[in-house]
């Protein structure tokens, strides 16, 4: 039960638990007086969050965590990362409070924004060009499958999140504005217009300051989202007056979906109206978070807890840009790696800049597999800080794959395999009981290994001929392996022979011997544990490979 994890969660060092504790402190401070907070804290720390909730009515509201999505494009790696990481914080919060406190995760779509430019790579761009400046939920769907472009991309977002099994509530900007859910906060902003302007104007350039208004009215004539000055404010009537390019001087209510707000005021208004408790964002939005927090306070709200994660870099250490196409898409990652490996990558050091490129995928897969193996033998205090606890909400699989991804990649190459049947044939002796049905992770990894090898490994293979000393050592290894039973499948026994040869031939350091094995036999500078590889590939086949390498045939 999660109530048993409360003491562990209080001491856990991984970042989701650090964030969960910050979120708990934020909610207690936000909803309770100092005296009430101390009493509630004692109960929660004692694993009695249910008593705290029963005692303090202000705590009974669910804790709301939010993520945002701009539906002018399709869901992408950043979308996944934000929802995955927020879910990890949510799971940690549940453990910290004994799963007594209701939580909600809202995926909010800014689908009332005006379409400012035609996205690349979509059909019917001319149709979209005609619909520029309309709210995304009024722009015609270029794919012809939904009522609007916004509806199409919202559906893609929901299908995307559902495919990963995220537990969330979808919320549409258009629907919340039109339903009146934001009306009270919009009227407050109208009253405190000058305070909001005082926050925003110093952040703008001179030209934009001259025309800026937090309100973006929707033209009653064209339906466009207009960036025009507010000429008059009628607080009693709840309206603004502006100059509509298509209809002249116009008055509209600020409620009921007749206006939307500029980006930073909109974020602040949403935090206030929905009472958001937690929202993380990228490092590039630090200034936006700060200014939106000021506006939130001006509206009478409390800015949410959260943190700023680092952005991903390409292989050259440059910022990833959608226009440059120097990043890695979700589809590309999932062609070569598993969803769990991507979650593992998102878990690791979110405040450190990391390369997001094809070359990180194999390591991410094998690191995830190794963390699963570690989890099996760890004590509870270590388990809760293991990445797989956060990835799987405290219930990771007992086993992952009996074979590493690195080993599969080399097996594909050496065996010249082009399909999974060939790989499973090699596995038959090493893992006679294994089948695609009882080793589904291994079966999935085979698909990814075949794809990755064909696209990235094969083009970079570079075998070399052995030196005289290396050739002598290789032939010695072949001779030692011939002395073993031909049906040997014990990778450790084979590995011991590999070590013995390296030491007997005085390789210094010993890793130079393994590097020689990889470069001469596998055409790469690094590789899998050689004993395990040989056990799966088969001892007779491995001996043939070693002898061919010793003769320099592989390099030719």
Strands of the largest sheet, in order across it?
1-2-3
What are the segments in which pLDDT stays under 50 over at least 5 consecutive residues?
Answer: none
* Beta-strand percent range: 5-15%
Biggest sheet architecture? 3 strands, parallel
Supply the CATH superfamily name of the largest domain.
Answer: HUPs
Would you give the CATH topology of the largest domain?
Rossmann fold
Mean pLDDT: 94
* Number of separate structural domains: 5
Which tags fit this structure?
single chain, 556 residues, mainly alpha, Rossmann fold, three-stranded parallel sheet, three-stranded antiparallel sheet, 12 strands, elongated
Summary?
The chain has 556 residues and is mostly helical.
Structural write-up:
- The chain has 556 residues and is mainly alpha-helical.
- The chain folds into 5 domains: 2-179, 3-Layer(aba) Sandwich (Rossmann fold); 202-261, no CATH class; 312-391, no CATH class; 405-460; 468-550, Arc Repressor Mutant, subunit A.
- It contains 26 helices and 12 strands.
- The strands form 5 sheets. The protein has a 3-stranded parallel β-sheet. Strands 5-6-7 form a 3-stranded antiparallel β-sheet, with no helix packed on it.
- Helix 19 (405-414) crosses helix 21 (440-457) and helix 22 (468-482) runs antiparallel to helix 23.
- It is elongated.
- The mean pLDDT is 94.
């Amino acid at each position: 039960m999660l109530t048993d994890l409360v003491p562990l969660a209080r001491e856990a060092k991984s970042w989701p638990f650090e964030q969960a504790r910050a979120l708990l402190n934020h909610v207690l401070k936000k909803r309770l007086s100092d005296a009430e907070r101390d009493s509630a804290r004692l109960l929660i720390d004692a694993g009695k969050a249910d008593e705290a909730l029963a005692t303090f009515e202000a705590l009974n509201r669910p804790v709301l965590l939010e993520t945002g999505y701009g539906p002018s494009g399709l869901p992408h790696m950043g979308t996944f990362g934000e929802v995955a990481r927020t879910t990890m914080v949510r799971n940690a919060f549940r453990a910290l409070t004994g799963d007594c406190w209701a939580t909600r995760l809202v995926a909010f779509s800014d689908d009332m924004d005006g379409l400012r430019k035609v996205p690349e790579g979509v059909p019917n761009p001319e149709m979209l060009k005609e619909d520029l400046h309309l709210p995304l939920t009024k722009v015609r769907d270029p794919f012809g499958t939904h009522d609007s472009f916004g509806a199409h991309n919202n559906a893609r977002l929901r299908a995307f999140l559902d495919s990963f099994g995220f537990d969330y509530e979808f919320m549409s900007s258009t629907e919340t504005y039109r339903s009146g859910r934001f009306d009270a906060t919009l009227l407050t902003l109208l009253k405190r217009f000058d305070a909001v302007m005082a926050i925003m104007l110093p952040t703008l350039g001179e030209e934009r300051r001259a025309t800026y208004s937090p309100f973006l009215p929707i033209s009653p004539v064209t339906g466009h989202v207009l960036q025009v000055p507010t000429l008059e404010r009628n607080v009693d009537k709840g309206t603004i007056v502006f100059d509509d390019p298509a209809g002249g001087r116009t008055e509209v209510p600020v409620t009921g979906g007749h206006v939307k707000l500029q980006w930073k005021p909109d974020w602040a208004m949403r935090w206030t109206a929905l009472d958001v408790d937690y929202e993380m964002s990228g490092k590039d939005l630090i200034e936006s978070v700060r200014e939106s927090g000021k506006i939130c306070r001006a509206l009478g709200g409390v800015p949410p807890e959260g943190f700023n994660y680092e952005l991903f870099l390409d292989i050259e250490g440059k910022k990833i840009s959608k226009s440059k196409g120097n990043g890695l898409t979700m589809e590309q990652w999932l062609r070569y790696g598993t969803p769990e490996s991507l979650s593992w990558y998102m878990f690791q050091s979110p405040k450190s800049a990391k390369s997001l490129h094809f070359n990180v995928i194999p390591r991410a897969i094998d690191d995830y597999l190794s963390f699963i193996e570690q989890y099996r033998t760890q004590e509870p205090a270590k388990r809760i800080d293991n990445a797989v606890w956060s990835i799987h909400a405290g219930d990771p699989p007992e086993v992952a794959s009996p074979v590493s991804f690195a080993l599969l990649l080399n097996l594909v190459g050496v065996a010249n395999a082009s399909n999974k049947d060939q790989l499973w044939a090699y596995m038959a002796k090493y893992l006679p009981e294994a089948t695609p049905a009882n080793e589904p992770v291994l079966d999935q990894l085979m698909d990814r290994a075949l794809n990755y090898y064909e696209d990235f490994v094969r083009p970079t293979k570079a075998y070399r001929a052995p030196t005289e000393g290396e050739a002598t050592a290789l032939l010695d290894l072949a001779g030692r392996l011939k002395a073993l039973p031909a049906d040997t499948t014990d990778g450790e026994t084979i590995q011991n022979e590999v070590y013995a040869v390296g030491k007997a031939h005085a390789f210094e350091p010993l890793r130079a011997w393994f590097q020689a094995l990889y470069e001469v036999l596998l055409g790469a500078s690094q590789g899998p544990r050689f004993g395990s590889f040989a056990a799966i590939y088969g001892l007779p086949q491995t001996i043939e490979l070693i002898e061919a390498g010793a003769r320099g045939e592989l390099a030719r």
